[in-house]
Structures are given as C-alpha cells and as structure tokens.
Write a structure and sequence with these properties.
By secondary structure, this protein is mostly helical. It has a domain of 31 residues. The protein has 2 helices and no strands. The chain is extended. The model has no long low-confidence stretch (mean pLDDT 92).
C-alpha cells in the first residue's frame, strides 16, 4: 500500500504533541491558542454560513 511520508510525519508530530499534554484536549487547544498568539500572525475566525430557509 502507498504511504505518504508527509502525512506520516504530521501524524507523528500530532501524536507527540497530544502525548506531551497527556491527551488532555483542553490543554492541547490552550497550547495551540498560545502558539497562535505568540506567532505574531493574523488569524481570522469565520462564522458558519447560515442556511437559507426553504
């Protein structure tokens, strides 16, 4: 079966990150938000599009 080395690396990095926070989703998300704030990049959060009533 064909394997994508880039995806394997991303999965490994994500697994290591989650393990470092004992798989605590709240702590993982807080760390992502902290990293975003420290990056200096501008992030945009889009609101979900509203569905039209038919």
């Amino acid at each position: 079966m064909w394997q994508d080395e880039i995806l394997e690396e991303l999965h490994r990095i994500r697994e290591e990150h989650a393990k470092s926070f004992n798989y605590d989703m709240k702590a993982i998300c807080e760390d992502w938000r902290r990293q975003q704030a420290e990056s200096g990049r501008k992030f945009v959060t889009l609101t979900p599009a509203q569905q039209s009533k038919k």
